[in-house]
Amino acid sequence: MNNFNLYNPVNLCFGKDEHRQLSSLIPKDAKVLITYGGGSIKQNGVYEKVKGALKNHEVLEFGGIEPNPQYSTLLRALAIIKAEKIDFLLAVGGGSVIDGTKFLASAALFEGEEPWDILAKGIRTTKALPFGTVLTLPATGSEMNSGAVVSRKEIGQKRGMGGPGLFPQFSISDPTVVASIPQRQLANGLVDAFTHVMEQYMTYPTSATLQDRISEGILSTLIEIAPKLMNNPSDYGTAANFMWSCNMALNGLIQKGVPTDWSIHAIGHEITAAYNVDHARTLAIVLPSLYRFKFEQKQAKLAQYGRRVLSLEGTDFDVAHEAIDRTEDFFHSLGIETKLGAYTTDAASFPKHAAAQLESYGATRLGEHKDITPADVITILNATL
């Protein structure tokens, strides 16, 4: 097992009606900016609950943060933060709203001239404006980690950021919100969480036995609850297991002491930047192709996953191959296509474009072995057309 540090200061408030804690979690004298997305929180009752809980606070609002939050939108919010001297942010939404708010928390105290440098130059955030979250869409685990991703449409980039200053002070996670989530987003959430686990698990065998078993437990849970969730998202038990699985998939626990991959995400981000495909769907496109391309290096772990999670039998070679096929079938069962050609008719030149973009960032050695080159990215993406 590799050496590791585990630090996660987030106060996770999990369960029904936990929004009632908001008034005590945010300082009484704080000037609060609520950030949210397209307005679904005003339809599902979350907005009224949050506003009611903060009736004794000074509160401003900024809505319209997109899926795959756009830098230009966030700059408008940043102007409000500075003009109004906001001292606390509250993200009410899913991963995109939370990611966007993390950028705002960092940019509010950034001393450079161009906030995009935080992402473009990989500047880690050690100090940020305090913020909390009210989760409305389980998927990314952003409510309990210190990472974020922001898109900039005008230059066709989607870049990541992070640092110890980007942990939320608290996160309200109420599974009852799952009942109002559209089917498309439920499917996205399942695939997003599933792939987050795979990026930290599907590498090569190590002595980190407990991490493997926790990862396999999350994967097994997501597969088990998926049809129940899609058929009846109002069931509290199913919704709670879904929300907790999404959180556990990327709260930092299962990545400690083990090698990690993240090449699927790196390549997937380029699909989103070029075509605005949902993040989870880009992962579903890349994962099967990448695992087939890196089959030899991942065969042992694929076989372990096939036996322990999918209950497959046979030789390592056969189980590993079938495990990839079964995983792709799982994505299909959720109504998610796994070929880029299903999302655009203009994909023939994309593999070379994506490889060039990654190379421009210096991302020329991806994967747990740092052996996936831009030329390999082209091969992997060509198999998805």
Write structural notes for this entry.
The chain is α/β, with parallel strands linked by helices and 385 residues long. It folds into 2 domains: 11-176, Rossmann fold; 182-382, Dehydroquinate synthase-like - alpha domain (Dehydroquinate synthase-like, alpha domain), CATH 1.20.1090.10. 47% of the residues lie in helices and 11% in strands. It has helices at residues 22-25, 46-53, 71-83, 95-108, 117-120, 183-201, 209-231, 236-249, 263-275, 279-293, 295-308, 316-333, 350-361, 374-382; strands at residues 11-14, 31-35, 58-62, 88-93, 131-135, 147-152, 157-162, 170-173. The strands form 2 sheets. A 6-stranded parallel sheet has the order 1-8-5-4-2-3, sandwiched between helices. It has a two-stranded antiparallel sheet with strand order 6-7. Helix 6 (183-201) packs parallel to helix 8, helix 6 (183-201) runs parallel beside helix 10 (279-293) and helix 11 (295-308) crosses helix 12 (316-333). The longest helix has 23 residues, at 209-231. The chain is globular. It starts with 10 loop residues before the first strand and ends with a helix. The mean pLDDT is 97.
How would you briefly describe this protein structure?
The chain has 14 helices and eight strands. β2, α2 and β3 form a beta-alpha-beta unit. It starts with 10 loop residues before the first strand and ends with a helix.
